[in-house]
Design a protein that fits this description.
Blueprint lengths: L15 H9 L15 E4 L6 H17 L6 E5 L5 H14 L4 E4 L5 H9 L6 E5 L8 E7 L8 H15 L10 H6 L3 E4 L3 H7 L5 H5 L5 E4 L5 H11 L5 E3 L30 H8 L5 E5 L6 E5 L3 E2 L2 H15 L7 E5 L5 H8 L4 E4 L7 H5 L3 E6 L3 E4 L8 H15 L3 H11 L4 E8 L2 H8 L10 E2 L2 E2 L2 E3 L4 E4 L3 E7 L5 E8 L3 H14 L5
Parallel strand pairs: 2-3, 2-4, 3-6, 7-8, 7-9, 12-13, 12-14
Antiparallel strand pairs: 1-5, 4-5, 9-10, 10-11, 14-15, 16-22, 17-18, 19-20, 20-21, 21-22
Helix pairs in contact: 2-3, 2-5, 11-12, 11-15
Length: 518
């Protein structure tokens, strides 16, 4: 059900005073550190507080010492309230443990962390204060190891273990001031990464964008993308690119409410993106791109296509890369289990193998690092490409989509229409189903053997995957059931290459098969 205020600006004032007080003096029991796909997140003062920050920073220091990881840890964050103070706390803890730190002095995108670790080699790891596109009341801290990508489960389990061991005795965590750290030679500061901006030009054709007659716009959604959009525009002399809405406000009050009435800075949702879509529909701009607060996710709208579905954008990117670029033999295309299988059909045409992984960019990081992927992508608007870095890069994605439009001279919606005419028309849907913890546990305990012999959409189930939820592969369709790790919902994904009625059929079958309530 869509909230009545979806797409409207919120009139509710966030009580940041209380949130900040609770962050430093949490009320009630301190919840344990729990890493998701990219880090530990929670509401300020409840699931995420000052003790969590110190415990995670201490855990990173301990992990580095035990594994003889030497070098600086890059520390920074996005534009949320307390991001700068959280970064300073991390620096104070790490340097007290004799771990050198590079402290970011401007809000810094997640892809810049990945670049500085993997490409520039300025740091061996990163601690990034961000809650991605979550509501403004939330905060998080994620760790990127030496390959620059999201940490794998073996690393995050260790960090969880070390952090949770020290939480109850957090007073034992040592800190020193930034001045002391500087005097000891343990602290350096970094502003905008000019190397990231310059090196981006080796991957993207900014000259095509610069000389195009098309009018382009960028929307940072109140996040870290702002300073980087400005620097990229300046460096590459992109006079045909306008940056819209330069407001930086930790309440993100200039972002319309999402489908559920919450302020959520999701560039792939029509509700927070409504102002951008409206501007593009007037014809003033041919293309408008956006990033979430830490700039690892992308969104875009065009004059004729309005908001471009992330799955559609990923297919457009892949077709463009495979049809215009040369790649060494043996490279693959990687997608997560919830991402459209239209990518498979495109890959098959170009004789490039497809790799399906569980949800999380961490499953792509090693292959991206070793230049074994043309593209790694996920349906939640995350992508990276060959010979770049190892984490999602929304800045790269936005400018790559702009390059595709300016190079081809076609609207992205036209390009997608050509793709589905060539390959097939996918009918895709995601449904969030409210549920209980008990129902989630029942789903997790389902044995694949009990599903053998079932049909899907009138055809055979040809394969079953149970590594991340339960996915059933039909002859021309698939369904995926994934209990959320952070919300009281079960996520149901489905795709049919028959028609929309067939999609409805397999969704109804999924409800019945897994005992879900409508």
């Amino acid at each position: 059900m869509i909230h009545k205020n979806a797409g409207k600006l919120s009139e509710t004032k966030i009580d940041f005073k209380t949130l900040v007080e609770n962050f430093y003096k949490p009320q009630g029991q301190i919840l344990p550190v729990k890493f998701g796909t990219s880090g530990h997140r929670g509401k300020l003062g409840e699931g995420f507080c000052d003790i969590h920050v110190k415990a995670i920073a201490y855990a990173v220091a301990k992990y580095h010492k035990e594994n003889n990881i030497t070098g600086s840890v890059m520390v920074g964050g996005d534009t949320r309230i307390l991001s700068d103070k959280i970064a300073i706390t991390c620096a104070e803890v790490l340097t007290a443990e004799n771990i050198p730190v590079i402290l970011c002095t401007v809000p810094t995108p997640t892809p810049v962390f990945a670049y500085e670790i993997l490409k520039a080699k300025s740091a061996v790891a990163g601690l990034n204060g961000t809650a991605s596109h979550n509501p403004p009341e939330d905060m998080g801290l994620k760790y990127n190891p030496s390959n620059g990508g999201p940490a794998t489960a073996d690393i995050t389990k260790k960090l969880e273990q070390y952090a949770n061991q020290i939480i109850s005795n957090s007073s034992e965590i040592k800190t020193i001031t930034l001045e002391e750290a500087k005097q000891k030679g343990l602290l350096k500061k970094m502003g905008i990464s000019q190397n990231y901006i310059k090196d981006l030009g080796s991957i993207l054709d900014f000259e095509k964008i610069r000389t195009s007659p098309k009018k382009l716009a960028l929307h940072p959604m109140g996040g870290t993308g702002l300073v980087y959009f400005e620097e990229i525009k300046k460096h590459y002399k992109l006079d045909n690119v306008d940056i819209l809405n330069k407001v930086i406000d930790p309440s993100f009050s200039h972002i319309p409410q999402d489908h559920d009435g919450k302020v959520r800075m999701d560039p792939s949702s029509i509700y927070p993106m409504k102002p951008l879509i409206d501007i593009v529909k007037t014809g003033k701009y041919d293309f408008a791109g956006a990033c979430d607060p830490d700039a690892d996710r992308f969104g875009c709208a065009t004059k004729y296509g309005e908001l471009i579905n992330p799955n559609h954008a990923l297919c457009i990117i892949l077709e463009y890369l495979l049809s215009t670029k040369k790649f060494p033999s043996g490279v693959k295309v990687a997608r997560t289990i919830a991402t459209t299988h239209l990518l498979d059909k495109i890959s098959e045409k170009y004789k490039v193998p497809i790799l399906e992984t569980d949800v999380g960019f961490k499953y792509f990081a090693k292959d991206l690092e070793e230049n074994k992927l043309v593209m790694g992508c996920e349906e939640s608007a995350g992508v990276n490409i060959y010979n770049w870095t190892t984490d999602k890069d929304g800045i790269l994605a936005v400018f790559l989509l702009a390059e595709i439009m300016t190079t081809t001279g076609k609207d992205l919606s036209e390009l997608y229409a050509e793709i589905i005419k060539t390959y097939a028309i996918p009918n895709y849907k995601r449904v969030d189903i409210p549920t209980t913890t008990e129902q989630k546990e029942k789903i997790k305990k389902i044995d694949a053997s009990t599903l053998k012999g079932v049909s899907l959409g009138g055809g055979k189930v040809v394969d079953i995957r149970t590594t991340d939820g339960i996915k059933l592969y039909g002859e021309n369709c698939w369904i995926l059931i994934r209990p959320s790790g952070t919300e009281p919902i079960i996520k149901l994904y489905a795709e049919s290459f028959v028609n929309s009625q067939h999609l409805d059929t397999i969704i109804n079958e999924a409800y019945e098969l897994f005992g879900l309530k409508k």
